[in-house]
UniProtKB/TrEMBL annotation, chain A:
Lineage of source species: Bacteria, Bacillati, Actinomycetota, Actinomycetes, Pseudonocardiales
Residue ranges of domain 2Fe-2S ferredoxin-type in the record: 2-103
Family: Belongs to the adrenodoxin/putidaredoxin family.
Keyword terms: 2Fe-2S, Iron, Iron-sulfur, Metal-binding
Region annotation Disordered: where it falls in the sequence: 1-22
Pfam families: Fer2 (PF00111)
Organism: Amycolatopsis albidoflavus
Name the UniProt record assigns to this protein: 2Fe-2S iron-sulfur cluster-binding protein
Tagged with keyword Iron-sulfur: yes
Cofactors named for this entry: [2Fe-2S] cluster
TrEMBL record, chain B:
Domain annotation Reductase C-terminal: ranges: 318-400
Domain FAD/NAD(P)-binding, residue spans: 6-299
InterPro entries hit by this protein: FAD-oxidoreductase/Apoptosis (IPR050446), FAD/NAD-bd_sf (IPR036188), FAD/NAD-binding_dom (IPR023753), FAD/NAD-linked_Rdtase_dimer_sf (IPR016156), Reductase_C (IPR028202)
Name of the molecule in the record: NAD(P)/FAD-dependent oxidoreductase
Domain of life: Bacteria
Keyword Oxidoreductase: yes
Species assigned in the record: Amycolatopsis albidoflavus
Keyword list, A-Z: FAD, Flavoprotein, Oxidoreductase
Length: 103, 409
């Protein structure tokens, strides 16, 4: 099964994630501390912010305008690689995402 | 962990997130989350939406059961019978006493029942808990005629689900228009038309006189004597805050448990968050909101204060509802219809538009139908005291998302 690594300031956590599972769900299921997901995966709260690899854009569905707007509401700095992990189905291969300092 | 715990009463959106955010804040005290429901804590939004469709059951648990031990949060399936404020302890329903360093009341609300003749008959349901939702979901599979009493978010979401499952559906609302408490007349009209186009019968300015039948409800009798066939009645007539525990303990209670801007009750070692909390706003009035946003934002503030930070609750309220193919999102508070307001509509599509509300020239609320990016932009603008004026929004091809970026720099 593909492995997703969540990189936080205090270290890495790697999970086996079935392809298609929203990364937010995988993270909260395994108690990854840096992901909150307080709206339940509706792209309405910006508390599941992650930084994806710069070359991973093709791995994921394009960003909707709503996600783009919500990313202006994140607690930590928005970067070109920012995404909301509730909108990212796990890819079929391994992946490393970085967690921001704050949600 | 040793020491006197922070005890959180209620594990809905507010209570669960209070416990979570306390840990995220680095609080080292033991945390005990007391909840009357079995199983791990659950979220409620899907209960009136996907849960009722009779398909795969939506995920309700905030976290898997192992999460709580992993974050050193003790989950107690129990109730709190009373609070001994002098001795800083709660007496649980099981009889056990539990001391607290700080106490957080996240007791939520309870669904209102209708007290009219026959309201005790089987087949008349409220929708608040997972158990309620599963019962309605199962009943919808057997029902032909469904009457929904109450044209608010919950009632209309239930009506949409019932219609999608092939039932004949009537919504009975006592006020002149749908969702009167939270949306503008334009949005009420839009959703009435939507429901009617989908085959829902909508009766406004109409009240229920009685429920007729045998052991089960068979007919809903309206105040004018009209009888509606009903195999199932869903009551969506609002909720009342769970304040008994607070009131019995001598805490200040009005429409909810009264708190200050830091969400402290009249006893500084007791906080109240979420649906049950009545908080002061900038204009001096008190408010109480029943929403995911209010629950999580208050949880964040209460947790930060209990971690020793100085914080005040002053968040932009937002709400959402899904009915048929329409997602309605509201940011801010729609002004009272009697207040002098200006509105501007953006979006030409009949099924995707936003209504901006201005009061004294200032943006106060944005209602969006299938325009989630407008909603996100509106929340950002409202949080920053925007200089957007009604005439700005009337310029052709005006875009709210662009405005957020421009005005906030």
């Amino acid at each position: 099964m593909p492995k997703v690594t969540f990189r936080a300031p205090d270290g890495d956590r790697t999970l086996d994630v079935p392809p298609g599972t929203p990364l937010m769900q995988a993270a909260v299921d395994d108690a990854i501390d840096g992901i909150v997901g307080e709206c339940g995966g509706n792209a309405m709260c910006a508390t599941c912010h992650v930084y994806v690899p710069a070359d991973a854009a093709d791995d994921f569905p394009p960003m909707s305008e709503a996600e783009d707007e919500m990313l202006n509401c994140t607690a930590s700095e928005r970067r070109p690689t920012s995404r909301l992990s509730c909108q990212l189905p796990a890819p079929v291969h391994d992946l490393l995402v970085e967690l921001p300092d704050e949600q | 962990m040793t020491g006197v715990p922070i005890v959180v009463v209620g594990a809905g959106h507010a209570g669960f997130h209070t416990a979570l955010f306390l840990r995220d804040e680095g609080v080292e005290a033991p945390i005990v989350l007391v909840d009357g429901l079995d199983g791990p804590p659950v979220q409620r939004p899907p209960l009136s939406k996907s849960m009722l469709l009779g398909e795969a059951e939506p995920r309700l648990e905030f976290r898997k059961p192992e999460f709580y031990a992993a974050r050193d949060i003790t989950l107690l399936h129990d109730t709190v019978a009373r609070i001994d404020r002098e001795r800083h302890l709660v007496r649980l329903g099981s009889g056990r006493a539990l001391g607290y360093r700080d106490l957080v009341l996240a007791t939520g609300c309870r669904a209102r029942h209708l007290t009219v003749p026959g309201s005790g008959r089987a087949g008349i349901c409220v929708l608040r808990t997972p158990h309620d939702a599963r019962a309605i979901r199962d009943a919808l599979g057997r029902a032909d005629d469904v009457v929904v009493v109450g044209g608010g978010f919950i009632g209309l979401e239930a009506a949409a689900a019932a219609r999608k499952r092939g039932c004949t559906v009537t919504v009975v609302e006592s006020l002149p228009r749908l969702m009167r408490r939270v949306v503008s007349a334009d949005i009420s009209d839009h959703f009435r038309a939507l429901h009617e186009a989908e085959g829902v019968r909508v009766l406004t300015d109409t009240t229920v006189h009685a429920f007729d039948g045998d052991t089960r409800v068979r007919q809903v009798v309206l105040a004018d004597g009209t009888r509606l066939r009903a195999d199932l009645v869903v009551l969506g007539i609002g909720v009342d805050p769970e304040v008994e525990l607070a009131r019995d303990s001598g805490l200040a209670v009005g429409d909810g448990i009264e708190v200050d801007t830091a969400l402290r009750t009249s006893d500084p070692s007791i906080s109240a968050v979420g649906d049950c909390s009545s908080f002061p706003t900038r204009d001096g009035t008190r408010r109480r909101f029943e929403s995911v946003q209010n629950a999580t934002d208050q949880a964040r503030v209460a947790a930060a204060r209990l971690a020793g930070r100085t914080v005040e609750f002053d968040a932009v309220p937002w709400f959402w509802t899904d009915q048929f193919a329409a997602k309605l999102q509201i940011a801010g508070l729609v002004p009272d219809p009697e207040a002098e307001t200006e509105t501007a509509r953006i979006g030409d599509a009949a099924d995707a538009f936003s209504v901006l509300h201005f009061h004294n020239g200032r943006l106060t609320a944005v209602e969006s139908v299938n325009r989630p990016s407008d909603h996100a932009a509106a929340r950002r603008l409202l949080a920053q005291d925007t200089s957007l004026r009604p005439d700005d929004a009337r310029i052709p091809r005006f875009r709210l998302p662009g405005t957020a970026a421009l005005r906030t720099g």
